[in-house]
Amino acid sequence: MSLPIVRTDLPRLTEEEIRPIYEFQRRMDRERSPDDPKLPFEQMVASIRNIPAFVEVFAFLVREGDGTVVASADFAFLKTPENQHMGQFGISVLPPYRRRGIGRRLLNEIVTTAERHERRLMITNATDRIPAGARFLERIGARIGLETHVNQLKFEDLNRGLLRRWLEEHVSEGFTLGFWSGPYPEENLEEMVALNELFNHVPRGDLDMEDFRFTAEQIRQQEASMTARGVERWTCFVRDNANGKIAGITEMLWNPHRPTHIHQGITAVWPEYRGKGLGRWLKAEMLEKVLRERPAVTLVRTENADVNAPMLKINTELGFRPYRAEYVWQIETARARAYLNGTEGGEAAS
After folding, report:
1. What is the pLDDT of residues 216-257, one digit of tens each?
2. Strand blocks (E) in 169-217
3. Fewer Cβ atoms within 10 A, N terminus or C terminus of the chain?
4. How far apart are CA 88 and CA 114, in angstroms?
5. How far apart are CA 114 and CA 107, in angstroms?
6. Which residues are within 8 A (CB) of 250 and not within 5 positions of it... i.e. 6 or more apart?
7. pTM of the predicted model, to two decimals?
C-alpha cells in the first residue's frame, strides 16, 4: 500500500511536528554535504517560523506509520509583480524509498499546485552528489537552464601574497570603502533597493526568468528571516566620491552554528566602474576582515555560474576550487502534466 502524502502548513507546525522533518533533512544533508557540521533543530524552527510574507510556500510530506518522514516536496513562488509565470519546486526522497513511485506522486502535487496558481514554468535545483535527481528530471522532460558550481576556498590554500598585492595595487583614488554589519542601515535602505538592479546582473544562463525588483519592505522581511536564523551578514562597498553612488558591493554570511564556514554572497560592480580593479579590492578587503575578525573560519564557499568568467577568474586566482556541481533545471508546467498523464509506474527522485 502506498504511503500517504500529507499537505503541511509549515508556519502552523508545533516543534514536536517539526522534529521528524528535521531528522529527515539531516539524513538528506548527509548525502548532499557530508562534510558539513549539522545545524541545530532550533535553526530549522526559526526558518519555518520566519518565512517572509511575500513568499508563498506549499509543502508535502510522506511519512511511515510511526511518523518518520521519508520524502518531502515543496512549491514556492514570490508574490511580486515580476516572474508571475514561475515557481520553484523541490522533491527529496530518502535512498531506500526511491524507485517506488513516491517522486512521481509528489510531482503530481506540485504540478496541481502550479496549475492552481497559474504558474506555467517550474524551476528546481539538482546536485551531482545525488545523481538520481538529474535522472528523474531528465525523465519528466526538464532541461538545464543554468550550470553552476559551489566553489570552496580553504584558507590553507589562500594565495595571501596575491591578497596583499590586490590590497596594495587597488585603485582607491576617488572611492571610499565602507562596511555594514547586519541589516542595512535605515538611511541606506532605499539605496539598497536601487542596487537590486546590480544584483540582476548575475548571469542566468537560459533560464526563463525576469529581473527581480524587491521593495524596501521585502528586503526587511528577508533580513528579519536571516536574523531569526542567527545568520550574520557583512557588507563591504565602495562609493564614488564624485557622485556618492555605490560603485560595487560584496557580502559575506556567517552562521555561528557552523563557525568554521562562511558563505560568500554577491560580488558585483556597476558596468561603468568595471575594469578598475574594484571587484578585487572588495574581495580582498572582505577576506582580510574575515581572517582578522573570524579566526575560527577555515573555509569560504560561494556559488558561481559556470558562464560567469570574470568572477570565476578572481576566485580561481584566490584559490577557490570546485566543491559541488549544481544545476538549475526548468520545465513547463504543461509538459510536466503531460508526463504525469502519459506515464505509469514509479520513478526515482532525490
Report:
1. 999 999 999 999 999 999 999 999 999 999 999 999 999 999
2. 175-181
3. N
4. 9
5. 10
6. 235, 236, 237, 264, 265, 266, 267, 268, 279, 282, 283, 286
7. 0.92
